[in-house]
């Protein structure tokens, strides 16, 4: 039975994909497997499930993390892609019209295809692809920071998409109808003529040239 704090999303776009090896954004941070989910605002059902899971995580936090009291201010991992990041900077254009959630895991994350087979070709896992993601929300209380985090469970790739972050496909890079330039085989320089040799004396014959 699925926990009330766990959600499997509908189709979302994946950004800042670090699913094949752990990554740390800043020196000194613990490397983690992570991905940012771009959830279309039109997917109301996924957003409702996320809101319910966050509320369930808050209730767990009241009991286990925050001494029976709900903090007046909580950090929530869901952001409006049409607004600004927590640091005040604008989200990228790919975030417009989406809810933005970043999920991470200390442990390796299973990434499967539509047939639930593991994707072994790492080039098929990239920022810009589309997928469904299983995430779990949890309460934290760290150094006075209280809020809800988002754990990453598993990812299912459902479709390719335009790569984000400058990555382009081979077709985009080389599909311009390029025609190779014609090349010529260099000719060897002419070999200097050798003088004819008298087979008896071994001396050059006067006026004679071999091959002529």
H/E topology pattern: EEEHEEEEEHEE
Determine and state the CATH class: Mainly Beta
Radius of gyration over C-alpha positions, nearest whole angstrom: 33 Å
In the predicted model, the low-confidence regions spanning at least 5 consecutive residues are none
Looking at the structure, the CATH topology is: OB fold (Dihydrolipoamide Acetyltransferase, E2P)
The CATH superfamily title: Nucleic acid-binding proteins
Description:
The chain has one domain (6-166): Beta Barrel (OB fold (Dihydrolipoamide Acetyltransferase, E2P)). With 212 residues, it is mainly beta. The protein has helices spanning 44-64, 170-174, and strands spanning 6-8, 12-23, 32-40, 78-80, 98-105, 110-112, 130-142, 145-159, 195-197, 204-209. 12% of the residues lie in helices and 35% in strands.
Write the layout of secondary structure elements.
Blueprint lengths: L5 E3 L3 E12 L8 E9 L3 H21 L13 E3 L17 E8 L4 E3 L17 E13 L2 E15 L10 H5 L20 E3 L6 E6 L3
Parallel strand pairs: 6-8
Antiparallel strand pairs: 1-7, 2-3, 2-7, 3-5, 4-5, 7-8, 9-10
């Amino acid at each position: 039975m699925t926990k009330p704090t766990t959600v499997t999303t509908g189709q979302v776009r994946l950004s800042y994909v670090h699913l094949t090896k752990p990554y740390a954004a800043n020196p000194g941070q613990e490397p983690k497997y992570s991905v940012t989910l771009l959830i279309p605002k039109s997917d109301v059902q996924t957003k409702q499930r996320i809101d319910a899971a966050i509320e369930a995580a808050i209730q767990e936090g009241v009991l286990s993390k925050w001494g029976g009291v709900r903090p007046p201010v909580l950090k929530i991992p869901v952001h409006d892609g049409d607004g600004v990041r927590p640091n005040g900077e604008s989200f990228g254009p790919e975030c417009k019209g989406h809810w933005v959630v970043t999920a991470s895991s200390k442990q390796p994350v299973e990434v499967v295809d539509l047939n639930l087979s593991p994707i072994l070709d790492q080039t098929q896992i990239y920022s810009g692809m589309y997928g469904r993601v299983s995430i779990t929300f949890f309460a934290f209380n760290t150094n006075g920071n209280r809020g809800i985090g988002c754990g990453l469970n598993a990812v299912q790739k459902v479709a390719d998409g335009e790569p984000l972050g400058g990555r382009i496909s081979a077709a985009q890079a080389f599909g311009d109808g390029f025609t190779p330039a014609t090349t010529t085989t260099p000719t060897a320089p002419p070999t200097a003529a050798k003088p004819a040799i008298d087979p008896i004396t071994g001396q050059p014959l006067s006026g004679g040239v071999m091959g002529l």
